[in-house]
Amino acid sequence: MLLLVFALPVAADDKIYKKVNPDGSVEYSDQPSEGAEAMSPRGAPATRFEKSPDINFEPPTRRDREDTPPYEVAVTSPANDESIRNNAGNITLQGNVTPGLRSGHTLRWSLDGERLDEEGVAVSLSNVDRGTHTVKLEVVDGDGEVLASSSSVTFHLLRHSRIPPANPAPNMTPPKQPAIPSAPSP
To answer: What is the percentage of the chain residues whose pLDDT exceeds 90?
Structure first.
């Protein structure tokens, strides 16, 4: 008899009660209530957890770069063979890089083959000499190695000169003729 008393709570814990309310909602409980249907619980599906793979938190090496998409680099302004008039020699260089720069990578501009100190997709230069120039945009890593570069873009900067031209244009107006005096009338 004593065994039956101890077994009773265990048997009660093995029941689940389902009740459908008048509004159609369903309630589940471990306590019996009016209108509830007793159900035997089915075993819950077992969830298996596998060991997660080891994660490498090391920065990518040059070998890892082969797995990443290559950069596409372009100079968007000035346009190739564009003539720009600016008497102060001011010019803005603009570029585009896709995909975005990865950690440790920077942009480097060059004008006429000389590296510029400015970085970024938009760079303003001042007092650039008049004449024909070439500009290029490069993506470099922390060691200065060029990872990708744009095509060279040629532009022409026009500035007013204070030096008169060597051969002035000929004067096209005819010289003035001296006035001929009129004869006295008789």
So the answer is: 32
d(CA 97, CA 101): 7
Q: How many CB atoms lie within 10 A of CB 175?
A: 6
Residue 37 dihedral angles phi and psi, to the nearest 5°:
-100, 130
Could you identify the residue written with the tokens 């990708």?
A: 148
CB 137 within 8 A of CB 95: yes
Positive or negative, the CA dihedral 109, 111, 116, 121 is negative
User: Closest Cα to residue 86, out of 156, 5, 166, 173?
Assistant: 156
Burial of 104 (0-12, 13-18, 19+ CB in 10 A): exposed
Distance CA 147, CA 156 (A): 28
pLDDT at 11 over 70: no
